[in-house]
Specification:
By secondary structure, the chain is of the alpha/beta class. It is built from five helices and five strands; from the N terminus they run ββαβαβαβαα.
C-alpha cells in the first residue's frame, strides 16, 4: 500500500488532519472532505498540520464549501507563509478559520477550545498520524 498523502482522526471534539510532503491526491482529499461533512455535531474544531504541498485550488474550494455548512473552528498549523496566507484568505469567507506557526501550537489549541488536560492526547495523536506520512519533520 502506498504511503498516504493525508490522514485524519478525531480526538474528543477535535478533528485532526495531517498532510505529508506530497500533494494530496484528489481521491484522498475527497475522502477527508466527506469525513468532515459527516462529522458528529460534538466535533467543534479542526486542527490541520499542513505538509509542504498545498491542496489544489479545486480541493480548497471543496473544503471551503463544506466548512461553510459546518460550525467548525479551524486552526491550521504551518511554518509556510504561503500556506498560512492561503488559510487566512479562506478565513475571509469562513468564520473561525485561523493560521498558526508551529511554535504557536498552544494558541491554536486555545482557538479550538482544547483544555490543557486534553492537549497531550491531541498532540500525541498528531505525532501518531504524522508517523504514517512522508514528512521532513514532525510536530
Amino acid at each position: 500500500m502506498a504511503t498516504p498523502t493525508i490522514v485524519y482522526s478525531v480526538v474528543d471534539h477535535v478533528f485532526l488532519v495531517c498532510a505529508g510532503d506530497n500533494a494530496p491526491t484528489d481521491a484522498e482529499f475527497n475522502e477527508m472532505v466527506e469525513a468532515v461533512s459527516t462529522l458528529d455535531n460534538r466535533v467543534t474544531g479542526m486542527l490541520v498540520f499542513a505538509g509542504s504541498k498545498n491542496p489544489s485550488l479545486k480541493q480548497r474550494s471543496e473544503m471551503v464549501s463544506v466548512l461553510r455548512k459546518r460550525d467548525l473552528k479551524v486552526a491550521m498549523v504551518s511554518d509556510s507563509r504561503l500556506a498560512r496566507g492561503a488559510i487566512t484568505a479562506i478565513g475571509w469567507f469562513v468564520q473561525g478559520v485561523k493560521a498558526f506557526q508551529e511554535p504557536d501550537i498552544d494558541r491554536a489549541l486555545d482557538h479550538l477550545n482544547v483544555e490543557p488536560r486534553l492537549a497531550g492526547r491531541v498532540l500525541s495523536m498528531v505525532r501518531e498520524l504524522q508517523s504514517t506520512l512522508v514528512m521532513r519533520k514532525s510536530a
